[in-house]
Specification:
Layout lengths: L34 H10 L6 H10 L32 E9 L5 H19 L21 E6 L1 H6 L30 E7 L2 H15 L3 E10 L32 H5 L16 E10 L1 H4 L4 H8 L36 H4 L11 E2 L2 E7 L5 E11 L3 H12 L8 E11 L11 H4 L2
Antiparallel strand pairs: 1-3, 1-4, 2-3, 5-8, 5-9, 6-8, 7-8
């Protein structure tokens, strides 16, 4: 789980919203007091207007009162340069699903499927119902920042007779010594990533995508994930994973001058096919966290494994979360403050020839095993213009001595080519399937 941070902010289409409650901060209350002033008063009294008080006040308000939450109003665009679901902030609910084309299905059937999927994604992301047989699961909700992202696996090109269009970068990932992979839950002809800030909206999209597959493709594997709900913290901050650690502090940011170079395939690429212009490569891994073992460690020992303070994500060498890590700093005994095998040290781009990837994961919990062990961890999704230079470079380094490796287990894996976004009137993958 390389130590790089996810952009947490997303464009606002509404008035300023109070992060803790999700209400436009200058909206008058029924008594003529702004939400900002009301929250300030609540804070002075220990937030007595918590769950119960807030619920009573809302119920008694006039019918025209402002809703308590505007999370559902967030909308991501479908027709964009890069497919949605890559640079957006973390979403509260996610589904990852891979499909295999049905026996006898080829390029023609794949094109028809991607056309159906693209139209369904466009409609649902806009908060509309599916074109046919909508289940009404999301009838009462807004778009909730829904994103639907499509990719192609290595095997897709053989199944559709498009081997000459398969990118070299889509070659199978190498084996790693820490892998314990379940082949039935790995790879696939087609991959779909669904994310939203509402669980029902996300499920609605998952069900629609599955129904659209019809007889052309069948589900190979499917995984469900989650993140902290936007607005649950007092201010935007790096997410925490199920180990309680800040997860993603050093993620490349869209504002970085070399962001596009690292994450997206350029339109003039000489090593990628033309249909991959403005696209990216997604590495998807189900990483189980051995939480019973991890939680036995004292906090100080956990921090030594990661190389950062658990409380605020700051490097053990000092400063704040964003302070540059001092890899040479030693303590009074002459020992390195950030251990040589600390996860954060090993994954630094400057320790891997500049290799970087955009991590955009979901946590997962799939129940408890008969022996009481939780089946929980990270649905790791990372994006890069070149997976050999990005993920593979870093994972090989981790494979040789990461202190975190004894507390995690890689259980499934996939690599997918994700083309650029569909222009108006196009469907995702059209430039590949109709070339």
């Amino acid at each position: 789980m390389p130590d790089q941070s996810i952009p947490q902010s997303r464009p606002e289409a509404r008035p300023p919203v109070d992060a803790a409650v999700g209400v436009p901060s200058d909206t008058p209350s029924p008594e003529g007091v702004t939400r900002r002033r009301l929250l300030g008063t609540a804070g002075a009294t220990g937030l007595a207007l918590g769950a119960a008080g807030g619920a009573v006040g809302y119920t008694a308000a006039p019918s025209q009162a402002t809703p308590l939450s505007s999370i559902g109003a967030g909308e991501a665009m479908f027709h964009v340069k890069h497919q949605p679901g890559i640079t957006q902030g973390l979403q509260a609910r996610g589904h990852l699903v891979a499909f295999d084309l049905a026996a006898g299905a080829g390029r023609k059937e794949a094109a028809a499927l991607l056309r159906r999927w693209s139209e369904t994604a466009r409609r649902l992301m806009a908060g509309e119902a599916a074109a046919t047989d909508d289940t009404d699961v999301a009838r009462d909700a807004g778009p909730s920042s829904l994103t639907v992202t499509f990719g192609f696996g290595n095997s897709f090109f053989t199944r559709t007779g498009l081997e000459k269009q398969r990118p070299v970068a889509l070659d199978q990932l190498p084996d790693f010594s820490s892998d314990h992979l379940d082949k039935a839950r790995s790879n696939g002809d087609l991959w779909v990533q669904i994310g939203a800030d509402d669980a029902l909206v996300a499920f609605h999209a998952l069900r629609a995508i599955q129904k659209d597959a019809g007889k052309a493709a069948k589900v190979r594997w499917q995984m469900n994930g989650f993140n902290r709900t936007p607005g649950a913290t007092a201010h935007p901050m790096t997410a925490r994973n199920l180990m309680g650690q800040m997860d993603g502090t050093r993620n490349p940011k869209p504002a970085d001058s070399d962001f596009d170079q690292r994450i997206f395939v350029p339109s003039d690429s000489t090593k990628d096919p033309a249909w991959m212009a403005d696209g990216s490569y997604a590495v998807v891994r189900r990483i189980r966290m051995l939480l019973d073992d991890w939680e036995k460690l004292p906090v100080k020992a956990q921090e030594q494994v990661i190389g950062r303070r658990k409380s605020d994500g700051a490097a053990l060498s000092g400063g704040t979360e964003t302070t540059a890590m001092d890899l040479e700093k030693t303590d009074a005994n002459g020992d390195l403050v950030v251990p040589i095998n600390a996860h954060a040290r090993i994954t630094r781009p400057d320790q891997n020839g500049g290799a970087a990837m955009l991590r955009r994961p979901f946590s997962y919990h799939d129940g408890i095993d008969p022996d009481g062990t939780p089946d929980a961890g990270l649905l790791f999704v990372c994006w890069q213009a070149d997976p050999l230079r990005g993920f593979v470079t870093v994972q090989r380094k981790l494979d040789r001595g990461d202190a975190l490796s004894q507390y995690i287990r890689h259980e499934s894996s996939g690599l997918f080519a994700v083309p650029g976004g569909a222009a108006q009137g196009e469907y995702v993958g059209q430039r590949l399937l109709e070339a």
